[in-house]
Task: inverse folding
C-alpha cells in the first residue's frame, strides 16, 4: 500500500550508522521531530529480523515504516505484509544455494555463520585470500550470485538481484517514492550498492576502510561526524542548506 505525501525519507544502516552513540541517535531523532515535514524511516541492515527487533528495543529506536534486513534479502512493510512475498518471489528466480554451498565447502578459510535466512549464505573469512579464492570459483562455476565482503571478515552470498541497493530500489519503485527527498546512510562494504544508487548519500565519519576507497561523487557526502551525527551533518548539507539557498 503506497503511503501518500512522502516528501522526505531516511534509508539507513543500523550498526555503526544510526546506532553507535546514543546521544547522537537521540539528537538526530529529535531533530527530525522538529522538522516541518515528516521523515519516513527505512532501516536497511545486515541483521536478521529477530536480531533487528532486539536492537530496536534495546536502543529504543522508533519502528521504521519499512525494514530491509539480512543484507537486502528480506523486506517488511508493517502496513503491507504482501510486500515481503513480492520481494521474495523476485529473489527465488535465480537462487541456487545448494550449488553455492558445495563450491564454498571446497574452499578453505570460510566458516559458516548460523543465519536464519533462506536467501542468504553467510560466512566469516579468515583472510582476503580466502575470499578471493571463493570469488574465483563462483565466477568459474557460472552459478548466479552476488558476493559481498565487508568489515574485513563478513562474507554474504546472495541471489544476484539481492543486496541493500537492489532492495531499496525495488521498495522506492513499489511505493512510488522516486520524487521524495531521500538520504541513504551507511558505514561498511555491504552498504556500498545502496550508497551509489544516485540518491543523496552519506558515508559516516567512522566508516570501514572499504568505503574510504569509494570514488568521490557530488551525491556522496563524506561526513566528519560519527554515527548518527554524520547523518545529521549530511541532512543539513543536502536538504536544509539547499532549501535555504532556494
Result:
Amino acid at each position: 500500500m503506497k503511503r501518500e505525501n512522502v516528501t522526505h525519507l531516511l534509508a539507513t544502516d543500523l550498526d555503526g550508522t544510526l546506532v553507535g552513540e546514543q546521544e547522537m541517535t537521540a539528537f538526530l531523532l529529535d531533530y527530525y521531530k522538529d522538522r516541518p515535514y515528516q521523515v519516513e524511516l527505512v532501516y536497511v541492515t545486515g541483521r536478521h529480523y529477530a536480531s533487528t527487533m532486539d536492537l530496536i528495543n534495546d536502543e529504543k529506536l522508533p519502528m521504521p515504516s519499512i525494514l530491509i534486513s539480512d543484507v537486502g534479502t528480506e523486506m517488511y512493510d508493517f502496513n503491507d505484509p504482501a510486500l515481503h512475498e513480492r520481494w521474495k518471489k523476485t529473489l527465488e528466480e535465480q537462487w541456487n544455494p545448494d550449488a553455492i554451498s558445495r563450491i564454498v565447502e571446497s574452499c578453505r578459510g570460510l566458516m559458516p555463520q548460523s543465519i536464519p535466512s533462506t536467501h542468504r549464505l553467510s560466512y566469516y573469512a579468515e583472510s582476503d585470500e580466502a575470499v578471493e579464492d571463493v570469488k574465483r570459483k563462483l565466477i568459474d562455476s557460472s552459478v548466479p550470485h552476488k558476493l559481498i565482503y565487508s568489515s574485513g571478515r563478513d562474507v554474504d552470498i546472495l541471489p544476484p538481484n539481492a543486496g541493500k541497493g537492489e532492495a531499496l530500489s525495488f521498495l522506492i519503485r513499489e511505493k512510488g517514492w522516486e520524487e521524495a527527498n531521500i538520504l541513504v546512510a551507511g558505514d561498511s562494504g555491504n552498504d556500498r550498492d545502496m550508497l551509489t544508487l544516485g540518491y543523496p548519500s552519506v558515508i559516516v565519519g567512522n566508516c570501514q576502510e572499504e568505503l574510504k576507497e569509494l570514488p568521490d561523487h557530488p551525491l556522496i557526502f563524506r561526513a566528519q561526524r560519527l554515527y548518527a551525527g554524520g547523518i545529521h551533518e549530511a541532512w543539513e548539507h543536502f536538504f536544509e542548506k539547499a532549501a535555504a539557498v532556494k
About this structure: The first strand starts at residue 8 and ends at 12.
